[in-house]
Design a protein that fits this description.
The complex is a heterodimer of chains A (292) and B (418). Chain A is of the alpha/beta class. Helix content of chain A is 57%, strand content 8%. Classes of the chains: A alpha/beta (292), B mainly alpha (418).
């Protein structure tokens, strides 16, 4: 994978250290060089220090992103110079932000660079799920949409409900009315979007991919792949699915029915659902049906 | 609760500078509460933030606390920006968290707890479990600094739960490291050793990025137990595990130098610090390293090196803490070389800086130094003799330490390897 970077020398060294042999780091001379790389190359990861670009530059990156989505990582110190551009990038792209000096700086940077999600996959998935997402309340729609697009977001159903500005039960009902599977499936799907590229086309050991993505074990990652894509991580690396196939699998697994205007489903959930919950790293909280 | 903590701190501030810093901090936290309750209103908040920024302009721009406060003032107007993705809120929490960290630099752990708990609670309410876990992790550290073990344990345990649910395994490992430090600080060395050993195994499997933290905690434990060689080896392992993380490389090399001094090999420690200077650190870390070297050159009785470093550091843009530390070490060095009048002047300066900025630990050390200088002056004719007698004698190094010393020498020869 190629990383086109527009950062200072020390940050570049840090990025090179993290990427190692997992990809090549190419410094962009200036913004024009960066935009040209975004235009001409299909699958790359762009790393920007927002404190080095002006708000106008950030707007140009947003325009380029709108026409051809790419994975963007914004790596910056938490200073005023970075804020204006960061806000523009956050509003117009699915950039992941890593702030210097935070306790989680190192793992966050590793995650952002080595698990850089495929922007096309996120785009295709959210486009395919647009009818269902449109049926959700506005804030929840944006939260779920961003989570599925970027692969980054809340890791528990409770956190998703809070960020979606809705009560947990109302959220579950909203998903049901919209014809979407449970919040756990959506969170798991976002994680699959996040790690798919690393699983399919990198040489990173699966255990490393799993722990970087927050799974306690590699088996939990495998479980998600089996449930959502119907094959193991190993099989995917041997024969990667096309993005269309991945999108199709995810959409069919995330939607409960095609007609979103029909009455809410009241039948009990399928056995796959309860099997899926067991052993998954995301199921540590939020199980409200314990009878206590 | 936060208001009372800030008011207490402002009331007991010893200098105008500290008072200004605390007043601005209090003002910004109040402003944050108001904006959180009703959203950002430019017609009201812009003027208030401008007034607080103007006060910050009167302070040293390189001070970490000043930078953190400025960042909060600059982030607050973005609170509602990109409301749907909550980016503005995350930005504000990030800057508040960095302010909490900066407060440690001034030994204001009570205030740090106040700010960090604010972030922890509010971030958790907003579903930002990852940020809340980080805030709780730092709270655990702050409570330990204050000696409240129970609160520290609770903060670490909550941080552990939150980090697990947020998928932040590195933070989860660091909470276990924090509990290990707690146990060793309370004197439960076997318990700490067992916990850290188990944590190291888990870190190797789940979060290799957290390994340097575990090794440094183990090194600290071995150092407390008097196992200096083991401590040196663990620091070196931490340095190797740090990878491209420059901050961690710096921390492990400084700890390595400290352990080497404890072991009785200050010359190797000096090489380690000089190797740190060759790397591309930021100014703050370079100055701190030079301050350590200053003390080391006194320990090694190298008067010329000591004088050169002292002069070299005079125009450095010190933080408040560094300024106090510099004068304290200069005093210790001058006492070692028998220049007691100059030593007394430096110790007095260190004491006044530490007192002015409520740096209590340094204040006690400076007072101790003043007493040592007075004692030395009363028997001035014997000082040099005693100092020479007390000069460290390096023990014979084991093969393992020889290898580490060799690796450090290589770093000095090939700076790229640092």
């Amino acid at each position: 994978m190629q990383y086109v970077v527009l950062v200072g020398p020390s940050m570049q060294r840090r990025i090179e250290g993290v990427v190692g042999s997992a990809g090549s780091v190419v410094p962009a001379r200036d913004l024009e060089g960066l935009l040209a790389a975004m235009r001409n190359q299909d699958s790359l990861c762009v790393v920007i220090d927002p404190s080095l670009i002006t708000p106008a530059d950030a707007a140009a990156i947003v325009r380029q992103f709108a026409s051809a989505p790419q994975t963007i990582v914004a790596y910056a110190p938490a200073v005023r110079e970075a804020f204006e551009s960061s806000i523009i990038l956050a509003q117009g792209t699915t950039a992941q932000f890593v702030f210097q000096g935070m306790p989680n700086e190192t793992p966050a940077l590793n995650q952002a660079l080595l698990l850089a999600p495929d922007a096309h996959l996120g785009h295709m998935l959210t486009t395919a799920l647009a009818p269902q997402l449109d049926a959700l309340p506005q804030q929840l729609r944006v939260t779920v949409g961003t989570m599925l697009y970027s692969g980054v977001g809340p890791q528990t159903a409770d956190a998703l409900a809070i960020q979606g500005g809705i009560a947990r039960r109302s959220m579950d009902r909203a998903f049901e009315i919209a014809g979407l599977e449970s919040s756990r499936f959506l969170i798991a799907a976002a994680r699959v979007v996040r790690v798919y590229r690393a699983v399919a086309s990198s040489r990173l050991p699966f255990r490393r991919v799993a722990t970087m993505a927050g799974y306690a074990t590699q088996r939990a990652l495998d479980h998600h792949f089996n449930t959502l894509l119907g094959c193991s991580t190993d099989a995917i690396r041997r024969r990667p699915l096309t993005l269309d196939e991945v999108t199709e699998c995810l959409v069919s697994r995330l939607t409960t029915r095609q007609d979103v205007s029909a009455t809410p489903r009241t039948a009990p959930r399928t056995s796959t659902s309860s099997t899926f919950v067991r052993g998954a790293a995301v199921s540590t909280t939020g199980n409200t049906f314990t009878g206590r | 609760m936060h208001a009372q903590s800030f008011l207490d701190a402002i009331g007991s501030a010893h200098s105008a500078e500290t008072r200004t810093l605390l007043t601005v901090g209090f003002g910004l936290v109040q402003q944050y509460h108001a904006i959180r309750d009703r959203g950002f209103d430019a017609s009201v908040d812009d003027a208030a933030l401008a007034a607080l920024r103007a006060q910050l302009d009167t302070l040293s721009p390189l001070d970490r606390e000043v930078m953190a406060l400025r960042a909060i003032a600059d982030a607050l107007p973005h609170w509602d920006a990109s409301a749907a993705s909550a980016f503005g809120r995350r930005l504000v929490y990030t800057t508040l968290l960095q302010y909490g960290q900066a407060l440690f630099g001034r030994a204001a752990a009570t205030l740090a707890v106040t700010v960090l708990e604010l972030v922890a609670v509010h971030a958790e309410l907003d579903g930002e479990d990852g940020l809340s876990a980080q805030a709780r992790l730092l709270c655990g550290f702050a409570w330990r600094t204050l000696g409240d073990w129970d609160a520290s344990r609770q903060a670490y345990e909550r941080a552990y739960e939150l980090s697990r649910s947020a998928g932040e395994l590195t933070i989860a490992i660091r909470t276990r490291v924090g509990l290990g430090y707690n146990a060793s600080a309370r004197g439960d060395l076997p318990g700490a050793r067992a916990l850290l050993r188990a944590t190291a195994t888990r870190a190797a499997r789940l979060a290799p990025e957290a390994l340097p933290y575990v090794y440094l905690a183990q090194a600290n434990l071995e150092s407390i137990s008097g196992q200096y060689e083991e401590a040196v080896a663990l620091c070196y392992r931490a340095r190797q595990a740090a990878g491209a993380d420059e901050e961690m490389q710096y921390a492990s090399m400084v700890d390595l130098a400290q352990c080497l001094v404890d072991y009785g090999a200050p010359d190797v420690a000096e090489k380690a610090l000089r190797a740190v200077l060759l790397s591309d650190l930021d100014v703050r870390h370079k100055i701190q390293t030079k301050i350590h070297l200053l003390l080391l050159s006194a320990t090694l009785r190298r008067e010329a090196d000591f004088a050169a470093l002292r002069d070299d550091l005079v125009p450095a843009p010190f933080t408040v803490r560094q300024r106090a530390l510099y004068h304290l070490y200069v005093a210790q060095g001058l006492r070692t070389f028998g220049k007691l009048d100059d030593a007394r002047t430096s110790a007095d300066t260190a004491l006044s800086v530490a007192r002015e900025h409520s740096l209590f630990q340094l204040m006690f050390q400076a007072e101790e130094e003043v007493r040592a200088i007075e004692a030395a002056a009363s028997r001035a004719h014997r000082v040099r003799e005693e100092v020479l007698e007390a000069a460290p004698r390096a023990p014979r190094m084991s093969r393992r330490l020889e290898r580490i010393a060799g690796a450090i020498s290589t770093m000095l020869e090939a700076p790229a390897a640092v």
